[in-house]
Amino acid sequence: MSRRVADQPLIFARGLVKRFGDFTAVDGIDLEVAPGEAFGFLGPNGAGKSSTMRMIGCVSAPTSGELRILGMDPVRDGATIRGRLGVCPQLDNLDPDLTVRENLTTYARYFGLSRAEGRRRADELLEFVQLSDRANGKVEPLSGGMKRRLTIARAMVNEPDLVLLDEPTTGLDPQARHLLWERLFRLKQRGTTLVLTTHYMDEAEQLCDRLVVMDGGKIVAEGSPRSLIQSYSTAEVVELRFPDGLDGNAGYAAKLDGVGERVDPLPDRVLVYADDGDSAVAEVHRRGLTPASVLVRRSTLEDVFLHLTGRTLVD
Amino acid sequence: MTAGAVHPTVAVLERHLTLYRRLWQASVFSSFVLPVLFLISIGIGVGRYVGSIQDVDYLSWIVPGVLASTAFQIAIAESTFSVLGDFKWVRGYHAMRATPVRPADMIGGHLLYLVFRVEGAVLAFLLVVVFFGGLHSPWALVTPLVCALLTVAAAAPVTAFAASIDHDSYFALLFRFVVIPSTLFAGVFFPVEQLPAVVRPVAYVSPLWHAVELCRAATLGRAPAWPVAAHAGYLLACSAVGVFLAVRAFHRRLED
Amino acid sequence: MMTTLVASRVSPGRVSAVISRNVGALRSGPSYWIVLVSGFFEPLLYLLSIGVGVGALVGDLTVGGRTMSYAAFVAPAMLAVSAMSGALAETTFNFFFKLKYMKTFEAVLATPVRPIEVAMGELTWAMVRGSVYTGIFLGVMVALGLTTPGWALAAFPATALVGLAFGAVGMWISTLMRGWQDFDLMSTGQFALFLFSGTFSPVQNYPLGVEILIQLTPLYHAVELVRGLCTGVLGVGLAGHAAYLAVMAVGGLWLAARRMEKRLCV
Fold this sequence. Notes:
The complex is a heterotrimer of chains A (315), B (256) and C (266).
Chain A: E1 11-20, E2 23-33, E3 38-42, H1 49-56, E4 64-69, H2 78-82, E5 85-88, H3 100-110, H4 115-128, H5 144-155, E6 162-166, H6 174-189, E7 193-198, H7 201-207, E8 210-215, E9 218-223, H8 225-232, E10 236-241, H9 248-255, E11 262-265, E12 270-274, H10 277-286, E13 293-298, H11 301-309
Chain B: H1 8-50, E1 52-53, E2 56-57, H2 58-77, H3 81-88, H4 92-97, H5 103-132, H6 143-164, H7 169-185, H8 200-205, H9 207-220, H10 228-254
Helix pairs in contact in B: 1-2, 1-5, 2-5, 2-6, 2-9, 3-6, 5-6, 6-9, 6-10, 9-10
Chain C: H1 2-8, H2 12-21, H3 29-38, H4 41-58, E1 60-63, E2 66-69, H5 70-102, H6 104-109, H7 115-143, H8 149-176, H9 181-196, H10 208-216, H11 218-231, H12 236-264
Antiparallel strand pairs in C: 1-2
Helix pairs in contact in C: 4-5, 5-7, 5-8, 5-11, 7-8, 7-12, 8-11, 8-12, 11-12
């Protein structure tokens, strides 16, 4: 076995399990993440994404199974591995009593960097996350999006081989999310390996080359966003909303049987999966049904998730 | 390691010092002014009525006591809210946990910072006391060392406690039932021999009493109650047990 | 009391972060009651340590022509301090907290209740808490032979007056506070009063200028009034001390109500 480090997967997991007492958070998952990849965990809250991330970040020991990060054992070589990771946690843990810049320079010292090197990287990274004008200000008055960008800058201060982002845009407004995505996309272009968790399908589609869908601690599907949509959904989806009657949406769904490839009644609407949405709509009208509203759209990961688990991602 | 590189323990110390640079003004009163006011009110005001005790004036007798209890209080106070806060609100320890910094480094950096804080207060107090004529022996020079040992002996177990609880109202109990009784009955203001025999062991358990004995022996230039090795050994034992418990508590809290 | 005060003020930036983020728990749940009950022990411990412990070194003390044990001299002072700090804790710390974070008062003031009535309500709670403390403390003093039951009964209303005076002024002060950092200033003042108001040694020993200065400050009058009653040394001076405290109570309430009108009923 003399594979060069560069060829090794950065993350390698086989049968990875994490249990808290009786509760199994992660239930035997297999993973491989290659250098330069942008890899995502998609799933609802409680799917086991964060527990997996904490094991990858070497702050939580696996209950069983094999896990290697950067070719090393996370339990034995935790400190060495963490020295080469950048972590952006779900809950902000910036230091409110330090300035924006001090948050970075202080953190740089945790990685053993010299003061001069810490200052140099801090200034460079503040430039990158567009916070240079706030460098000497306090953290507290920053907006949620700014704090998140600062946390990402902090995660980059040791020039990590692997960046872990746990729900990077949860709780941010749409504008802040787009700015953050744009910055993360730049990181990806630079060749930084990103691993992120999200319960937003648009985020996964924007950022991930490859992703796994998690549910109940298990991986239920794996692939690129495009291939997942191709395998588990149709090109287009028709969303129909009906006035009351016919025993609700289930009744309408029965009437729609055979339209498109699949029909899914939800509490508020009926989804019709079809490669050609327009002809599906025509068929709906031919059957004498008059929905209150009709929307034809592209299929998304949300549809994939709904198909795989029978539930929506964000409840 | 490259030039200018730093050990994680020192990096943690630096973080505390950076914070202290922003907040030091607030500590001036409690660390420097208050002990001196105490000395004037009790040492001089009440001392006038006490006259001499164990062949020295009362002021000289309580100087080492107030000195050690200042160190004791800074060590404990700085190991309560700020430690719990760095787990619960600021989450500074969680931030460190994602880096090569280990729990032992977090505790080491914290304790080094406290020693720094305590030494500042101790040196300022000694300087003032020289003008009051409160030091009677060159052995007074070892009191900063005794106070450093007391700092670790008192701060380490309290740090472990702060890392194990979930609500800060426990601190009020810690202060009222541990810190204040220790300060008031550990030989700072009157000899523990005056305490009823049943209560006296409580003073012996407190690390403060051992440090007061050592400091008093040093500033007055006489032998302490027990052999020096016994007092110092007790303080070392408290430190060792405290650090062990703190490392364990940090591991538990940061794991999962 | 004092030591807790010293300890909790070491890094106010951090402490205030804790306080402001820990809002709900301050006045609810069992922890509040534990803190409330344990608050009583502090003055008692001071009495035992300084009064009895150091008192054994001092022996008897002659003040104003009357000889008493040092513990009997210190005990009434600790009683007055306990009444003061109990009232201040409730009316400054908790009151400010509610004023600033819980918006309790804004909700109350939306009803026909007037600010002065809110202030009276707060003060009443502070008085109840303070009276329980001082009542038990007087009981301990009687048990230790530091006062007689008769004089303890006479001193009890005096401690209530002390609580009222400091509570009223404390409430006024908390309407003036800008943030938690101002509590440092207040506790600094409180601590200086604690050490130098004739609590541990008679003020006659201080240089004349200092003595006059002390006689202008409130805790001195509280200590003298309570001590006079506990030790049974009556004189016209006591009426003067009581008048000083009564003026504090009325003035404090009036100013507090005025500030609240300004702050809340803009």
